[in-house]
Amino acid sequence: MAYILIDIGKQPEEPLNVSLLLPLPADTPYGNFQLKWMDIISRLNEANRQIITSYETWCAARTGSIEDSMKDVFNMHRFSTEYAVTGMRRVADELVALVWCMHQLRDGGEIPSRVKVDTIGLVFKHKYYGPDDLFERHLDLIKLLNDLSNTFKHSFIQSDLARIGENEPLVLALNLERADLDNKPLFYAVRVSEFVSGYTRFFHDCREWLRTLL
Protein backbone atom coordinates (compact mmCIF):
# COMPACT_ATOMS: atom_id res chain seq x y z
CA MET A 1 0.00 0.00 0.00
CA ALA A 2 1.36 3.43 -0.95
CA TYR A 3 1.73 5.82 1.94
CA ILE A 4 1.90 9.59 2.23
CA LEU A 5 4.66 11.12 4.34
CA ILE A 6 5.27 14.65 5.56
CA ASP A 7 7.20 16.32 2.76
CA ILE A 8 10.39 17.58 4.41
CA GLY A 9 12.59 17.22 1.34
CA LYS A 10 14.08 13.82 2.19
CA GLN A 11 13.11 10.22 2.81
CA PRO A 12 13.58 8.87 6.36
CA GLU A 13 16.72 6.86 5.58
CA GLU A 14 18.40 9.56 3.51
CA PRO A 15 21.06 11.76 5.15
CA LEU A 16 20.28 15.34 6.11
CA ASN A 17 21.30 17.65 3.27
CA VAL A 18 22.45 21.22 3.86
CA SER A 19 19.86 22.40 1.33
CA LEU A 20 17.13 21.57 3.87
CA LEU A 21 18.51 24.00 6.46
CA LEU A 22 17.67 27.67 7.00
CA PRO A 23 20.21 30.38 7.90
CA LEU A 24 18.21 31.56 10.90
CA PRO A 25 19.77 33.65 13.70
CA ALA A 26 22.37 31.60 15.57
CA ASP A 27 22.70 33.88 18.61
CA THR A 28 19.36 34.49 20.33
CA PRO A 29 18.17 34.53 23.97
CA TYR A 30 16.58 31.13 23.25
CA GLY A 31 19.58 29.48 21.66
CA ASN A 32 20.65 28.78 18.10
CA PHE A 33 17.65 28.90 15.77
CA GLN A 34 19.63 27.08 13.07
CA LEU A 35 19.95 24.11 15.43
CA LYS A 36 16.27 24.43 16.26
CA TRP A 37 15.42 24.11 12.58
CA MET A 38 17.67 21.05 12.28
CA ASP A 39 15.81 19.54 15.24
CA ILE A 40 12.48 20.26 13.56
CA ILE A 41 13.59 18.40 10.42
CA SER A 42 14.91 15.50 12.52
CA ARG A 43 11.68 15.21 14.50
CA LEU A 44 9.56 15.23 11.36
CA ASN A 45 11.86 12.61 9.89
CA GLU A 46 11.15 10.41 12.91
CA ALA A 47 7.42 11.11 12.59
CA ASN A 48 7.67 9.85 9.02
CA ARG A 49 9.28 6.64 10.26
CA GLN A 50 6.32 6.17 12.59
CA ILE A 51 3.91 6.83 9.72
CA ILE A 52 5.60 4.11 7.66
CA THR A 53 5.32 1.71 10.60
CA SER A 54 1.65 2.67 10.97
CA TYR A 55 0.94 1.83 7.33
CA GLU A 56 2.94 -1.40 7.32
CA THR A 57 1.41 -2.73 10.53
CA TRP A 58 -2.08 -1.69 9.41
CA CYS A 59 -1.59 -3.83 6.30
CA ALA A 60 -0.34 -6.71 8.45
CA ALA A 61 -3.22 -6.37 10.90
CA ARG A 62 -5.73 -6.45 8.05
CA THR A 63 -4.39 -9.80 6.80
CA GLY A 64 -5.35 -11.42 10.08
CA SER A 65 -2.57 -14.01 9.87
CA ILE A 66 -1.52 -15.87 13.02
CA GLU A 67 2.12 -15.01 12.34
CA ASP A 68 1.40 -11.28 12.25
CA SER A 69 -0.83 -11.45 15.32
CA MET A 70 2.07 -12.97 17.23
CA LYS A 71 4.12 -9.90 16.33
CA ASP A 72 1.50 -7.69 18.02
CA VAL A 73 0.97 -5.70 14.83
CA PHE A 74 -2.32 -4.27 16.12
CA ASN A 75 -0.64 -2.46 19.01
CA MET A 76 2.35 -1.55 16.87
CA HIS A 77 -0.05 0.14 14.46
CA ARG A 78 -1.95 1.88 17.24
CA PHE A 79 1.10 3.21 19.02
CA SER A 80 3.06 4.22 15.91
CA THR A 81 0.09 6.29 14.75
CA GLU A 82 -0.12 7.93 18.16
CA TYR A 83 3.63 8.61 18.26
CA ALA A 84 3.50 10.17 14.80
CA VAL A 85 0.74 12.56 15.87
CA THR A 86 2.42 13.56 19.13
CA GLY A 87 5.69 14.12 17.27
CA MET A 88 3.90 16.33 14.76
CA ARG A 89 2.34 18.24 17.65
CA ARG A 90 5.75 18.85 19.22
CA VAL A 91 7.06 20.27 15.95
CA ALA A 92 3.94 22.40 15.44
CA ASP A 93 4.56 23.98 18.86
CA GLU A 94 8.17 24.65 17.85
CA LEU A 95 7.08 26.18 14.54
CA VAL A 96 4.56 28.46 16.23
CA ALA A 97 7.15 29.68 18.74
CA LEU A 98 9.81 30.12 16.06
CA VAL A 99 7.49 32.06 13.77
CA TRP A 100 6.34 34.23 16.70
CA CYS A 101 9.94 35.07 17.63
CA MET A 102 10.92 35.88 14.06
CA HIS A 103 7.73 37.93 13.62
CA GLN A 104 8.70 40.03 16.66
CA LEU A 105 12.24 40.38 15.34
CA ARG A 106 11.00 41.50 11.94
CA ASP A 107 8.52 44.07 13.24
CA GLY A 108 10.22 45.21 16.46
CA GLY A 109 13.89 44.63 15.80
CA GLU A 110 14.37 42.25 18.72
CA ILE A 111 13.13 39.02 20.26
CA PRO A 112 11.24 39.68 23.53
CA SER A 113 12.30 38.19 26.87
CA ARG A 114 9.12 36.12 26.93
CA VAL A 115 7.70 34.00 24.14
CA LYS A 116 4.01 34.80 24.41
CA VAL A 117 2.83 32.17 21.91
CA ASP A 118 4.83 28.94 22.12
CA THR A 119 2.19 26.26 21.58
CA ILE A 120 -0.58 25.69 19.07
CA GLY A 121 -3.13 25.97 21.87
CA LEU A 122 -2.04 29.56 22.49
CA VAL A 123 -2.72 30.40 18.85
CA PHE A 124 -6.40 30.21 19.78
CA LYS A 125 -6.12 31.66 23.29
CA HIS A 126 -4.33 34.80 22.09
CA LYS A 127 -5.99 34.87 18.65
CA TYR A 128 -2.53 34.97 17.12
CA TYR A 129 -2.97 34.08 13.48
CA GLY A 130 0.64 34.67 12.56
CA PRO A 131 2.32 37.15 10.24
CA ASP A 132 0.39 37.70 7.02
CA ASP A 133 -2.34 35.41 8.45
CA LEU A 134 0.04 32.46 8.16
CA PHE A 135 -1.75 30.33 10.77
CA GLU A 136 -5.25 31.44 9.85
CA ARG A 137 -5.01 29.40 6.65
CA HIS A 138 -4.47 26.28 8.74
CA LEU A 139 -6.73 26.79 11.76
CA ASP A 140 -8.75 23.63 11.11
CA LEU A 141 -5.59 21.50 10.95
CA ILE A 142 -4.09 23.21 14.01
CA LYS A 143 -7.25 22.69 16.06
CA LEU A 144 -7.51 19.04 15.02
CA LEU A 145 -3.85 18.44 15.87
CA ASN A 146 -4.34 20.11 19.25
CA ASP A 147 -7.44 18.03 20.00
CA LEU A 148 -5.88 14.73 18.92
CA SER A 149 -2.60 15.20 20.77
CA ASN A 150 -4.37 16.35 23.94
CA THR A 151 -6.64 13.32 23.74
CA PHE A 152 -3.67 10.97 23.40
CA LYS A 153 -2.00 12.69 26.33
CA HIS A 154 -4.89 13.10 28.74
CA SER A 155 -7.93 10.97 27.85
CA PHE A 156 -8.77 8.41 30.52
CA ILE A 157 -11.00 6.42 28.14
CA GLN A 158 -8.62 6.26 25.16
CA SER A 159 -7.57 2.73 26.20
CA ASP A 160 -11.09 1.47 25.43
CA LEU A 161 -10.58 2.22 21.75
CA ALA A 162 -9.62 -1.09 20.12
CA ARG A 163 -10.17 -0.82 16.40
CA ILE A 164 -8.39 0.07 13.17
CA GLY A 165 -9.44 1.65 9.88
CA GLU A 166 -11.25 -0.63 7.46
CA ASN A 167 -9.93 0.72 4.16
CA GLU A 168 -6.86 2.70 5.20
CA PRO A 169 -4.99 3.75 8.36
CA LEU A 170 -6.90 6.17 10.57
CA VAL A 171 -5.99 8.34 13.52
CA LEU A 172 -8.51 7.15 16.11
CA ALA A 173 -9.03 8.94 19.40
CA LEU A 174 -11.68 8.91 22.12
CA ASN A 175 -11.88 11.84 24.51
CA LEU A 176 -13.88 12.47 27.66
CA GLU A 177 -13.10 16.01 28.71
CA ARG A 178 -11.60 16.18 32.20
CA ALA A 179 -12.70 12.55 32.73
CA ASP A 180 -16.09 13.94 33.72
CA LEU A 181 -19.08 11.71 32.92
CA ASP A 182 -21.25 14.80 32.66
CA ASN A 183 -19.40 15.49 29.42
CA LYS A 184 -20.15 13.63 26.22
CA PRO A 185 -17.37 11.40 24.83
CA LEU A 186 -15.94 12.70 21.57
CA PHE A 187 -14.75 10.24 18.93
CA TYR A 188 -12.23 11.15 16.23
CA ALA A 189 -11.62 9.13 13.07
CA VAL A 190 -9.21 10.93 10.75
CA ARG A 191 -7.60 9.54 7.60
CA VAL A 192 -3.84 9.46 8.09
CA SER A 193 -3.25 10.41 4.44
CA GLU A 194 -5.49 13.47 4.67
CA PHE A 195 -4.06 14.54 8.03
CA VAL A 196 -0.46 14.24 6.85
CA SER A 197 -1.19 16.13 3.63
CA GLY A 198 -2.71 19.01 5.59
CA TYR A 199 0.26 19.02 7.95
CA THR A 200 2.67 19.21 5.00
CA ARG A 201 0.89 22.33 3.74
CA PHE A 202 1.19 23.89 7.20
CA PHE A 203 4.89 23.03 7.43
CA HIS A 204 5.62 24.32 3.93
CA ASP A 205 3.85 27.63 4.59
CA CYS A 206 5.82 28.15 7.82
CA ARG A 207 9.08 27.31 6.06
CA GLU A 208 8.38 29.60 3.11
CA TRP A 209 7.51 32.52 5.40
CA LEU A 210 10.76 32.05 7.32
CA ARG A 211 12.65 32.02 4.02
CA THR A 212 11.21 35.42 3.10
CA LEU A 213 13.11 36.91 6.06
CA LEU A 214 16.50 35.60 4.98
List strands and helices in order, with pairings.
Blueprint (H helix, E strand, L loop, with lengths): L32 H31 L2 H5 L2 H36 L11 H6 L13 H16 L15 E6 L10 E6 H21 L2
Antiparallel strand pairs: 1-2
Protein described:
With 214 residues, this protein is mainly alpha-helical. It has a domain at 31-153 and 195-212. It has six helices and two strands. A two-stranded antiparallel ribbon has the order 1-2. The relative contact order is 0.14.
Structural class based on helices, strands and sheet pairing: mainly alpha
Please give the share of residues in helix.
40-55%
Proportion in β-strands: 5-15%
Low-confidence stretches: none
How many DSSP-defined strands? 2
Query: How would you write the strand order of the largest sheet?
Result: 1-2
Question: Radius of gyration over alpha carbons?
Answer: 19 Å
The run of helices and strands is HHHHHEEH
Helical run tally? 6
> Biggest sheet, in brief?
2 strands, antiparallel
**What is the average per-residue confidence, as pLDDT, rounded to a whole number?**
95
Coarse morphology: globular
Distance between the termini: 40 Å
Give a brief rundown of this model.
Helix content is 54%, strand content 6%.
